[in-house]
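[audit] Reproducing an earlier prediction to check determinism. Same input, same settings, fresh worker. If the tokens differ from the archived copy the diff job will pick it up downstream; this log only records the rerun itself.
[audit] input (281 residues):
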Amino acid sequence: MRNSHIEVMPIAGALGAEIGGVDVAQDLDDAVIGDIRQALLDYGVIFFRDQTLDVARHKAFTRRFGEIFVHPNYKGVSADPEIVDIKREPGDKKIVGEDWHTDTTMSAEPPMGAILYAIEVPPYGGDTMFANQYLAYDTLSDGLKRTLDGMRAVHSDRMVAGPQAGMNAQRSTKVREDADWRETISVHPVVRTHPETGRKLLFVNRSYTVGFEGWTEAESKPLLDYLLEHGHRPELTCRFRWANGSIAFWDNRCTKHLAVHDAGPFRRIMRRTQICGDAVA
């Protein structure tokens, strides 16, 4: 019977699974929520098909996994601070998330996850890719693992928000570019230990990581570029093709993702919530 148990169907060798047998708009019992959370921990990102979520139910489902994270760079831009509406219109030169990234890592406590719901998607194009950062760490050499042990990286939002980033002139989804905007910077371990699984993972990303603590950005660039490229080698990834009513729910602590900018003449309308996380350890 629908909602009594979930079906888990892996979609790739590295990460990702589709979840069947559940209507997330309903008031699910704790056991089903526990099964969904376990699938998230097991597969890094999980997907649901044929869901119908208004804003209230979207937020209610999100809160079953934690408090809603209010994104500081969309505050005052989105009508509802707990929701980020992600819009892509034909002719947009840029889109949200077109570089490999982990969400909002300039925060002292980055979100633990995000739930993205498809409202209007193209007939083709506009897929999202995900990369497993446990495997990114596991496949490093022992020597490089020793080098990274204890290193910390500087994360900033200056590349994705603020007047210097110039995003709003190039895309339909707007971000804070006002004169009161100020750069947010946090320093996190390069190798993170997941707070629930206890596994080590690589925790750097293209959109927010600008260098290593105590190093100049020029000194950081060769090693950082290597780690960033290594973290999304094809065998570490999965790719999700959207349909209206689909959901992607990713563990932001152990994955990176990228929105493929290939939707051509089509609109793409999505709605996202984020879930509060913990300090990076």
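[audit] rerun output stored. Observation attached for the diff report: The CA atoms of residues 211 and 217 lie 5 Å apart.
[audit] end
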